[in-house]
């Protein structure tokens, strides 16, 4: 029995060493695998973000093209036709003060109003015009359009943001404002709206506030996810120009949407690679 | 036969044979479940063959008969299957192709060594060392791929991980020992016994890992690619 002791001890010690090696190997493999998996997940997320941004940028380019074509079509064809009809109405041989004359005058006034509205719409759709007159004037122009409906009281406060953004960033920001105004008109049932465009340190802040019926942002975002429109688009557009979007809304207490974007220190295509949704 | 004789006989059965049997039972249970892993049918056959060989080898040993020829041939089957199994776990690519070709050529070269170079009366150490080194390289390749392309499934729940760990561990450690087994056969009895016991411990570890892999196979579900 005593002579067998070294043999048993060798086997036990060897077994313990082997098991320690085995456990160590499994633990190291787990750690390496986990690390690699995390890196893979991060890479995948980054690729997805890049793909989404590329997709959105293409969508925006297509949208700008469509807007340009629409604007030209409205100005060159529909606008011209309506002007021609308006002028033709002037040549209708009717006596002044007659009932027919009154109808014709009423129709001409309505036609002139339609022509003016179409012209405004056409201007709002022109990308070149937005670049020419700048973001501030474009927003002012949109608000004037809303004011003319007599349904909204608007105010616009701004600080000088000229030369802080490139033209593409300005266009995207303006399209975002248009989308937000469109949402207010369609859903908010508001009577007053304010826009603040400010520049602080290295950021530009755009805030749109209304006194409408409000909504629950969480619930709405969930719905938007399935439809892929509205607020999600606003967030994506903000992300594309390297910004963030913050939505605050209270039921029957109005809505405030704030977009914060970094001051343009680098070209558009570079800083949108760092953006986050 | 007296009942006490039967009990004595059972008590004499080596522990690693019990582990092989357990492993075979777990494999059969996994195989009976829905959607078993694709390699499991052949793996169960391999375990059955291993169990038969180990039982016959043990009875030969009890009868003091020479079982070298049988173990030489089984070694070829065991290592060829190990290469096949590990290469089936690899991602499609050059490495997989290379190991598939090796799997085709290895048995021919090993048999050539056993019958014409070292002879059937000796343990085919050359072919064993080459086969075991190929298995180790293939396992390392598998682990390298698991780190580089980790996939979505948990490593600890993946049957292939436990099989590859077992094969790497067993072959990497037995290469130096079984590579000199012809020399070891002439060393003092107590040293030979120690080597045999360590070999038995390694077999127990290998089949324990196979058992874990079979348990993992019970919950195996193929992820969409």
Automatic annotation (TrEMBL), chain A:
Enzyme Commission numbers on file: 2.7.13.3
Keyword annotations of the record: 4Fe-4S, ATP-binding, Cytoplasm, Iron, Iron-sulfur, Kinase, Membrane, Metal-binding, Nucleotide-binding, Phosphoprotein, Transferase, Transmembrane, Transmembrane helix, Two-component regulatory system
InterPro entries: HATPase_C_sf, HATPase_dom, His_kinase_dom, Sensor_HK_TwoCompSys, Sig_transdc_His_kin-like_C, Sig_transdc_His_kin_sub3_dim/P
SMART domains given in the database record: HATPase_c
Cellular component terms (Gene Ontology): cytoplasm; membrane
Cofactor: [4Fe-4S] cluster
Main localization (coarse): cytoplasm
All copies of domain Histidine kinase, residue ranges: 69-265
GO MF annotation, one: 4 iron, 4 sulfur cluster binding
Ranges that cross the membrane: 12-32
Signal peptide from the UniProt entry: none
Catalysed reactions, semicolon-separated: ATP + protein L-histidine = ADP + protein N-phospho-L-histidine
Subcellular location: Cytoplasm
PANTHER family reported in the protein's UniProt record: NITRATE/NITRITE SENSOR PROTEIN NARX-RELATED, NITRATE_NITRITE SENSOR PROTEIN NARQ
Chain's role: Member of the two-component regulatory system NreB/NreC involved in the control of dissimilatory nitrate/nitrite reduction in response to oxygen. NreB functions as a direct oxygen sensor histidine kinase which is autophosphorylated, in the absence of oxygen, probably at the conserved histidine residue, and transfers its phosphate group probably to a conserved aspartate residue of NreC. NreB/NreC activates the expression of the nitrate (narGHJI) and nitrite (nir) reductase operons, as well as the putative nitrate transporter gene narT.
Protein name: Oxygen sensor histidine kinase NreB
Lineage: Bacteria, Pseudomonadati, Bacteroidota, Chitinophagia, Chitinophagales
From TrEMBL, chain B:
Keyword Transmembrane on entry: yes
UniProt keyword annotations, A-Z: Membrane, Transmembrane, Transmembrane helix
Residue ranges crossing the lipid bilayer per the database entry: 13-32, 39-60, 72-91, 98-117, 123-144, 160-180, 200-220
Protein name: Histidine kinase N-terminal 7TM region domain-containing protein
Annotated organism of origin: Chitinophaga rupis
